[in-house]
Amino acid sequence: MSTTKSDNSSSLFLGSLVPACGLAVIVLTACGCKSVTAVVAPVQAGPSALNRNTPPARLTARLSEPSQAQIQRALEAVYPAIVRIDAVIEQGEQGRMQKQRVTGSGTIISKDGYVITNHHVAGRATRIVCRLATGEELDAVLVGTDPLTDIAVLKLDLSTRRDPRAPVHYARFGDSDKLKIGDTVFAMGSPAGVSQSVTKGIVSNTAMIAPAGSVFILDGEPVGLLVRWIGHDAQIYSGNSGGPLVNLAGEIVGVNEVGIGSLGGAIPSNLARAIADELIANGTVSRSWIGLEVQPLLKGARDAKGVLVAGVLPDSPASVAGIEPGDLIIEFNGQPVPDCRLPEDIPMFNRLVLTTPVGVTIKLKGLRNGQPIAWQLTTTNREPAQARETELKDWGLVVRDLTRISALENKRPTKQGVLVDSVRAGGPCAESKPALQTGDVIVKVADTLVTNTTGLVEFTRRFVGESQVRKPLLVTFERGAQQFVTVARIGPEPQDEKPARPQKAWLGVQTQVLTPELAEALGLDGKKGVRVTQVLPGSPADRAGVKVGDIFLKLDGQVIPASTQADQELFDNLIRAYKPGAEAELEGVRNGEPIRLVATLGQSPKTAPELAEYKDDKFEFTARELSLAERVEEKLDEAFAGVRVSVVQRAGWAALAGLSSGDIITAIDGKPISSIPALKETLENLAKTKPRRTVFFVKRGVRTLFIELEPKW
Fold it and tell me: I want to staple 151 with a disulfide (CB 3.0 to 4.6 A). Which of 71, 275, 413, 475 is the partner?
């Protein structure tokens, strides 16, 4: 998700977003979310933000402390309905769909297990587990999500409860419009991913917005377009997102979402409930769009009425109807438009527009240059600001469809084509000449026009087929006003081929140089050679009877001229000059007595970089065979079998589960993994059967552990 800010205009369509001065911070309160801050101007409380209808005398009365009995009743009504949400979300970045664990909060709102939370907690989730107040952990599915209001609805799998017939404790909504400054409220949730908790405070502001009309963005949607937060001083932290704000009657009056300075901000329950009801009924929220951008009335226009038109988007219903920047709208389909003199007033006008049924013909009245004017237009469906990302692994790209909004922002006449969201470094499209970049629009592949991501995915499937190698493809793309062609080699990332290596002789010992100081201490003053520090089990040296501590002075009658640390590799190089199978005579000293040994040299074992490896794109890690040196160094039993994890892709499924570079996989779902071919076969079978989860048994240092991987197939 991304966050940003804008000028004083409030776009019903999304336009450019302009920085403000004098900085404060909005913080989304989900634990683990990426990009959860937005820099905005300082919060300023105007008359509407302070609730113009609440006189000072009533404010004072409402600041009195509630009784313990009142508090207890409120907590008992909602606390058992709180859930902690653990989710895995995906977000396109650097040419990949990267995975991340987040924790947040939610509230059960019905006896059949519907849960309300924030979009930024679970709206992108591929895996969701909810922990109930009883300690039970239940799987949940995403019913629907709405980035524009930052509301999402989940559905618990109640069949997996310890007692599926037990009643579900759920909370009820209250009327957020009845809240007054000074009312006692409770913020409930799971801060920092801990178990459910409660903090107490008072309502500080009933119409809080990002100041000066600034907004933060979720999936391209400006949340402040519709939401005026309930500001309160009940402490909230990361992980509180999605949890309820509760009144003394034990009702949900808000859904906690942000922290601004020392205040928490909650989405009013009346708005949250309406969105949740529509998501439960339809899985999505339908809204009208007319293409207007509006802002508060100018300060110098004291006699102005209604709301000021800041901009009209091209080819929109408002544009077709003839509405122009500078017009004042004073009546919307028979309903007077309240004077919008403050940024806090704009969301109320936006709600008039967005909640109008799609396809309805409406009448607007206004003023132009002080003269009355009327318009008639038909609303159209408001598309999402951004389409969801799609990863094209064979391309090394993350792409999106163009929506009406993103097409306009990219100055494109239609929604045809596929927008490049990010490019993987080193991938096919990053290596093409010219390389594709973020913001490019792919319009043609070979002789096929590209209209959307579905078509491009299908073309790629046919083009790549069963090929295990990358194939050249002519790609036409547009960048701004220019059209380019490039050749990208599309297909699966090739497995590294290990080149055949020349055969080298091998003795199977580790040695140290016999320095002059060491030679004198050992009674071998003036001698040169090497001392054996390790004999590898089963090696030619082991079979020849070489022991740790033996000192070799000659090789096949020739003095071994090693006497300084710079000569550390000399003895190994002398051995490698032989052919495998040759005999080598070693003369030296053991415990002060002369020795003479003959070893039949073997072929040197493969080092770690030379061993067979396998890269799995589904689980996103690479593993290789164990080297002899590793077996010896880690004192692994000769019968021990497994494969070494060499690379774990950042923000991939394996990384998310906790698999680490250096782990040794010994079994998957109870099946022993003795080699790279066994690993490849097992993982390929899993890709076909697509289990909900799979369990790796790994050795990590001296310890072993089970790791559960839950990929999205």
Answer: 275
Q: What is the pTM of this model?
A: 0.79
pLDDT in tens, 696-705: 999 999 999 9
Residue 281 lies in a domain: no
| 3-class SS of residue 676 | helix
Are residues 60 and 105 both part of a single domain? yes
Q: Is the pLDDT of residue 10 over 50?
A: no
Number of domains present in the structure of the chain: 5
Instruction: State residue 532 phi and psi, 5-degree precision.
Output: -80, 125
Same domain for 234 and 126: yes
Residue 427's CATH number: 2.30.42.10
State yes or no: pLDDT of 374 exceeds 80: yes
* Rounded distance between C-alpha atoms, residue 172 and residue 332, angstroms: 33
Residues 2 and 144 reside in one and the same domain: yes
* pLDDT tier at 65, thresholds 50, 70, 90: confident
Q: How far apart, in whole angstroms, are the C-alpha atoms of residue 167 and residue 81?
A: 11
Specify the DSSP class assigned to residue 651.
T
Q: Name the H helices within 89-179.
A: 119-122
Instruction: Look up tokens 């770690």; give the residue.
Output: 608
Same domain, residue pair 263 and 307: no
Side-chain half-sphere CA neighbours of 209 within 13 A:
28
Strands (E), 360-497: 361-368, 371-378, 380-381, 390-392, 397-401, 418-423, 441-445, 448-449, 471-479, 482-490
| Pair (394, 468) in one structural domain | yes
Domain shared by 12 and 96, yes or no: yes
Question: Does 179 have pLDDT greater than 90?
Answer: yes
Q: Which two tokens stand for residue 692?
A: 């909900």
User: Is 282 part of any domain?
Assistant: no
More confident residue, 581 or 197: 581
Owning domain of residue 689: 608-709
Nearest residue to 170 via CA among 243, 112, 256: 112
What amino acid occupies position 604? Answer: S
- C-alpha of 34 from chain center: 7
CATH of the domain at 699: 2.30.42.60
Q: Does 455 fall in a domain?
A: yes
The model's pLDDT over 421-431, given as tens digits with 9 standing for 90+, comes to 999 999 999 99
Residue with tokens 């032989």: 578
Question: What is the C-alpha separation between 566 and 548, in angstroms, rounded?
Answer: 22
Q: Return the active site residues.
A: 120, 150, 241
* For residues 639-666, average pLDDT: 95
Establish if 89 belongs to a structural domain. yes
